[in-house]
Description:
The complex is a heterodimer of chains A (about 260) and B (about 325). Chain A has 13 helices and no strands. With about 260 residues, chain A is mostly helical. Chain A has one domain (about 1-255). Among the domains of chain B are: about 1-75 and about 150-220, Rossmann fold; about 225-295, Alpha-Beta Plaits (2-Layer Sandwich). Chain B has 12 helices and 14 strands. Chain B has a 6-stranded mixed β-sheet, with helices on both faces. At the A-B interface, helix 1, helix 6 and helix 13 of A face helix 2 and helix 3 of B.
Amino acid sequence: MHNTFWIYRRELTSFFFSPIAYVILAAWTVLMGIFYSGAFLSYAVVSMQLARNPQAAAQYNITPTSAVLEPVFSSVTVILLFVAPLLTMRLFSEEKKQGTIELMLTFPLRNGQMFAGKYLSVLSIYLIMLAITFVYPVILSAFVNVDWTIVSSAYLGMILTGMAFLSVGLMASSWTSNQIVAAMVAFMILLATFLMEALAISASEPLSSILRHLSLGMHLRNFIRGIIDTRDIVYLVSINILCGFLVLRSLEYYRWRG
Amino acid sequence: MIRVENLTKYYGKLRGVEDISFQVEEGEVLGFLGPNGAGKSTTMRILTGYMPPNSGSAWVADVNVSESPLEAQKNLGYLPENNPLYGDMTVRAYLNFVASMKGMSGAEKEAGIQRVVGSCGLEAVVDRLIGNLSKGYRQRVGLAQAMVNDPPVLILDEPTSGLDPAQIVEIRNLISELKGNRTLILSTHILPEVNMVCDRVVIIHQGHIAAEGALDSLAANMQADSTIRISAMGVAGALSDKMKTVSGVERVELLGTSTGEEAHFAVHAKGGDDIRSDLVAAVFAAEGKLTEIRQVRLTLEDLFVRIVSGEHKHDEETVDEETVNA
């Protein structure tokens, strides 16, 4: 616990020391803001039109939560596709490149503690990013009624999805001493899971179902609609476990190879 | 304190070290010598628990490194070869981090940091970023990091490489101050360094221990066939003949003559006995005038070169035969 905390602390300090932190946070805020204001403004127009047409309103059943927040929350996966590799790329590869991992591996420190510290540090950064987005439902609630149950479910989904994305990034980072390679590998893996969903549309059953369930982005959809499905939770958590396991194997291999 | 038994490490098909064994007693400073790529770093990395050996075992502070690495690593300070540091931390933050990693906390940690900042002369730079420090200071930070928890065992991999002469002297003095209360392994290919700080040396060559022992006895052993340089005025042939009669002399070699009929000889003698006075008497007996006599001492450089060069055959059997045990 002690060691994990100090690794965690070092990583966070180091992250906020580098300009990458501010670039990523700024880009995230701006992009999410664009998604939000777009959804917000179009809902303003649509809701005005529907108010004049009660029949259509009843037919479509559009709520502020589904019309404004759902598209914003769904876009998180798309941005994460780029942001997660950037957040995680340096965590192991930088240590390998600088050689600091040699010292780290001679400290009385378990590989698992090192992984946990790094993982929690990048997860904290992600939680900070999510916290920024929380102003959107708050702003929305000033004008209309927001369904907070759905919002909570969506945030649970975004946290779990983010954890899966970040663990893929960490795994890629543990494979190489080159940050760019780490980022590219993580990006390719994450992109591949997106493409899986597209392939699922044209594939026949049962392949189609398999591909759809393997897709990382798809599992967020239920959460955003307020559905908490254990299948989604199990899937996302097992991605974490698998990646964590592979990181530990990779560190062990690194030791063996010398 | 430190024990290594039959350690073997291969990097794929490449030999790191093969079947090496040695011991270091408590409070001893062991110099680890060898040409680049001999296996010094490999041995040290195994001792620190950074990588496991293919076979054999290592004990640090009497704890088996492979069986309980965390326990062994608590008693260990390590300065890796290229001294990797986090450039984005201040010296204080880095030392604080390392001390915490080694399980220190509270007042004990503060005291430890204060102590190494003082002993490594880091007061002036303690709040500066490591990335902005000069190489000499970075090396001191590396040493401070290794010593912060006052470990009984210190392993320093080429602590003076890449430093300028003044910095080398500084670091060397620092290491000398560490002597006595700690067990220290120090690798280097700078030979005078060994003369100055080490009690004992292990010379490693191509993954094997080529020689081991206290510096003096190692030199004495290697000096079994000593050479004496003599210059004298006189008839070269007569001088040479007389000197050959001195007991212990194996061969007299005429190196050349210079103006004024001064002849220069190299006398090769067997055994460790000092035969210089006998040789002087021989020169007088040949009616020569002695101008110079000098025992050719084996410097560590000679020793090193002899051990790692052609005089020692590299195949397994001969290496074992020629291992010098003090």
